[in-house]
Amino acid sequence: MKTELFYFDDCPSYEQAAANLKEALRLEELPETVEMVRVTSEEDAGRKRFIGSPTIRIDGVDLEGPEAETQGYGYGCRVYSSDGGFAGWPSVEQIRSTLRRQTTDPNSPAAANEAPRSCCG
């Protein structure tokens, strides 16, 4: 399973997203290896299919599913729905839910390998 976290240096949320991602991987008893992918410009955002910082991909699929990419790409902050509100990072439970889905769905790349909004400026 390949786990990536895309971010830009001045993002106020990517460190919490990384901590939540590692905790979710630990709780799911999966390798806690996360590839940190730095995005440096608007052009780089397009090349890397960057929805906003932080963006988490599991085996190349956005945490919120492939439809998340319909929002377009851009060099800015990203927000996640969280308990009726919004947060700058996904919760541990949101990440765990995606990890479970990816490792149990027979059509997901992760399962095959194992048997798996813009804001601020």
State the main characteristics:
single chain, two-stranded antiparallel sheet, 32% helix, globular, alpha+beta, 4 helices, disordered C terminus, four-stranded mixed beta sheet, 121 residues, Glutaredoxin
Mind sketching the topology for me?
Layout: E1 3-7, H1 14-27, E2 35-38, H2 42-47, E3 55-58, E4 61-62, E5 80-82, E6 85-87, H3 92-104, H4 109-114
Helix pairs in contact: 1-3
The best one-word shape is globular
Quote the distance from N terminus to C terminus.
32 Å
How many strand elements? 6
CATH topology: Glutaredoxin
Largest sheet report: 4 strands, mixed
- Count structural domains: 1
Strand-and-helix sequence, N→C?
A: EHEHEEEEHH
Uncertain runs are 109-121
Q: How many individual helices? A: 4
**CATH domain class name:** Alpha Beta
Explain the overall architecture.
The protein has helices at 14-27, 42-47, 92-104, 109-114; strands at residues 3-7, 35-38, 55-58, 61-62, 80-82, 85-87. The chain is globular. Mean pLDDT is 87; it is low at 109-121. Helix 1 crosses helix 3 (92-104). It has a single domain (3-114), classed as Glutaredoxin. The chain is α+β, with helices and mostly antiparallel strands and 121 residues long. Strands 2-1-3-4 form a four-stranded mixed sheet, with helices on one face. A two-stranded antiparallel ribbon has the order 5-6.
